[in-house]
Amino acid sequence: MDESGRRYFTFAAHGPGLELDCGSSLGPVTLAYETYGQLNTARDNALLILHAFTGDSHVASHPGLPGEAALPGWWETMVGPGKAIDTDRYYVICTNILGSCRGSTGPTSLNPATQAPYGLAFPVVTIGDMVRAQKALIDHLEISKLLAVIGGSVGGMQALQWCVSYPHRLRAAIPLATTMRHSAQAIAFNEIARQAIMADPKWNMGEYGDNPPELGLAVARMIGHVTYLSDQAMRRKFGRRLQGRQGFSFHFESDFQVESYLHHQGTKFVRRFDANSLLYLTKAADYFDLTGSDQGSLGALAGADIRFLVISFTSDWLYPTYQSREMVHALKREGLDVSFCEIEADCGHDAFLLENERLAKMVRGFLGGVAKNG
């Protein structure tokens, strides 16, 4: 375990490697992960939490550990002792996804063939590949069946892919603010973000070393961040208020608070994330399709013994509620046990990450029911 609380699992170091959907194989593969709580003697209280696009394994703090490990995690409001995902009751695992730059193997990792970072030599990975790698970790931890998989946004895609790929390895799934496949609008925003990165001269076809395309990556983050918010949230937080001035500058600088906010988000992001990784992760999300593609279909779940809690949020225009309803109808057509709730929230797509009493109550009750009826 390092100072952030992360552990590392490496596999496929020998032999054919991890088989990928693109037809290539990859090895060795390392997954960064963190665990919370204790695995019980029956090994049946394990939950796998799956992070969104640019998240990481640090889902919650480790209060007993020093340094970065004690810092709040990205879902601190939901995960911890006595919280909705109660680490006094459940053994919680959160991994950093394949293709990322937060400890798991991705474009920034050393290519064993060249001893230099992979860059664009890294194979294009899918949500299915990410789940395949996670399954190797769960096997390593000797957990034969997960109590539940839980994830929002791209994490929700992974949760759905777990159900399709390994239906007998889990009892329940909670996909939040997610979709069975990207809409044309979602793909369009991702393509604009990719083009922003690739248009930066510093990108250099992915071979940028210690001189990354910071401007392109910052713009890509600004684009993405707008899709995570809502009109209501931006109007409430910023309106048309000016930033540090009494009137317009009549120059092309940031006049409005919302402009300064987006610049801040872009600057902060480039300090912690890799440009190539963002290219790969957006492409994986765009390729995801469980409506009858090569990656599978929810129709494969016919007869599966999995309980679902599907949650959407009223102001989420990236993955709007109609997409969750389509998912619920598809699951119910297969005779599955599905509960669905649309939660009133004006924060946009990011609502699933924010403190919400109704969300916490629903997740707590659902997990308790699954555990009780095991």
How do the strands and helices of this protein lay out in sequence?
Blueprint: E1 7-11, E2 18-19, E3 25-26, E4 29-36, E5 46-50, E6 79-80, E7 85-86, E8 91-95, E9 110-111, E10 116-117, H1 127-140, E11 148-152, H2 154-165, E12 172-176, H3 184-198, H4 214-228, H5 231-237, H6 257-270, H7 275-287, E13 291-293, E14 296-297, E15 307-313, H8 321-333, E16 337-343, H9 357-372
Helix pairs in contact: 1-2, 3-4, 3-7, 4-6
Structure keywords:
alpha/beta, Rossmann fold, Rna Polymerase Sigma Factor, Chain: A, 2 domains, 9 helices, 17% strand
User: What is the helix/strand order?
Assistant: EEEEEEEEEEHEHEHHHHHEEEHEH
The largest sheet is: 8 strands, mixed
Mean pLDDT over the full residue set: 95
Strand content: 15-25%
Radius of gyration (CA) equals 21 Å
Instruction: Assign the CATH class of the largest domain.
Output: Alpha Beta
Q: What is the count of structural domains?
A: 2
- The CATH architecture term of the largest domain is 3-Layer(aba) Sandwich
CATH domain topology of the largest domain:
Rossmann fold
